[in-house]
Write a sequence for this structure.
């Protein structure tokens, strides 16, 4: 008995325009992102310090308000905050660089001792370590020459960076002094129907940046203190360098903790051997896990409730696109962008764009 052939599957042609809208929307987002990235790269020496200064202005605006309530004028209060922050950053940078430069030989001795301990305790052939060290020594002149060439050719970049820092300081000063009035002026130019929504979004963005800055500072201080105390108890050298590296690294999610903790483990391995390094590694891992699972939610609250995997991805992407500023600001900017998308979706803006784009997509598909 012959079987009746199955009818061919029917494709709902009504779904084709919607798929086309989604596809072209994705292409448009990618193109717009590429244009923005290229534009940022062209002016990054000035734009990135300016963006960072604007973020710092948002974070430290409450401190200016406290100074104003104590009787200082807004101009003086903003100047005190900017100069104070510049002084603190200069002291930290100078102390860190000076400590690392002065202790370069000690760091090298720790690395050499770590290699020797690895050869003895992990049964690594000494000849293999000697070959690796010889290869590194052969490349040292090339590295040095390249470094000198980079410094000589980078004078123009340093001038641009200095100009960007000066511009950033001025932007931070004026935002601290006149930020509230500037916000009111911007809101006044927006249509009354969405004025409240835009003002609410600006308030949310400012609160997010403040929560992130406050939370990162607290968490970095906790981790740096724990690792510093552990270093003292274990009798390690370079304690100040270890503490500063972990405190500064704490502002870069995951990556900074890895670098700062790695320095502590290397010094511990070189000074005390594998057992001391294992103890330091346990302290580094435990302190960061405790920070991530218990301290961070309490410090930052639900405002920055974001999955650790997404934090790692956006941090790496931000560093790749925008350097150190991208590493530090990728997470709060991702949270702010997510809130903006949610607000647009709630008001039906995305559906409106799709509906208006659908006729054009149909013409293209036809």
């Amino acid at each position: 008995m012959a079987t009746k052939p199955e009818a061919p599957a029917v494709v709902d042609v009504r779904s084709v325009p919607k798929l086309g809208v989604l596809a072209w929307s994705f292409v448009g987002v990618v193109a717009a992102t590429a244009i923005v990235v290229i534009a940022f790269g062209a002016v990054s020496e000035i734009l990135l310090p300016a963006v960072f200064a604007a973020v710092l202005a948002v974070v430290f605006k409450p401190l200016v308000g406290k100074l104003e309530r104590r009787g200082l004028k807004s101009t003086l209060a903003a100047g005190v905050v900017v100069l104070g922050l510049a002084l603190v950053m200069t002291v930290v940078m100078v102390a860190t660089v000076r400590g690392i430069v002065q202790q370069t030989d000690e760091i090298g001795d720790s690395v050499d001792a770590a290699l020797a301990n690895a050869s003895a305790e992990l049964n690594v052939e000494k000849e293999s370590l000697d070959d690796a060290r010889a290869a590194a020594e052969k490349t040292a002149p090339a590295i040095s020459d390249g470094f000198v060439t980079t410094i000589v050719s980078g004078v123009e970049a340093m001038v641009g960076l200095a100009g960007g820092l000066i511009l950033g300081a001025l932007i931070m000063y004026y935002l601290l002094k006149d930020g509230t009035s500037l916000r009111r002026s911007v809101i006044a130019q927006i249509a009354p129907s969405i004025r409240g929504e835009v003002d609410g979004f600006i308030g949310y963005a400012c609160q997010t940046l403040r929560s992130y800055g406050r939370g990162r500072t607290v968490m970095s201080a906790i981790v740096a203190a724990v690792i510093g105390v552990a270093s003292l108890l274990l009798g390690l050298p370079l304690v100040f360098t270890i503490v500063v590296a972990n405190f500064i690294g704490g502002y870069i999610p995951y990556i900074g903790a890895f670098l700062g903790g790695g320095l502590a483990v290397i010094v511990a391995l070189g000074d005390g051997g594998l057992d001391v390094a294992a103890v330091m590694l346990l302290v580094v891992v435990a302190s960061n896990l405790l920070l991530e699972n218990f301290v961070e939610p309490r410090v930052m609250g639900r405002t920055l409730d974001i999955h650790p995997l997404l934090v790692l991805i956006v941090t790496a992407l931000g560093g790749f696109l925008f350097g150190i500023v991208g590493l530090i600001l990728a997470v709060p900017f991702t949270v702010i962008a997510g809130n903006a998308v949610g607000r647009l979706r709630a008001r039906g803006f995305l559906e409106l764009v799709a509906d208006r784009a659908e006729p054009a997509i149909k013409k293209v598909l036809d």
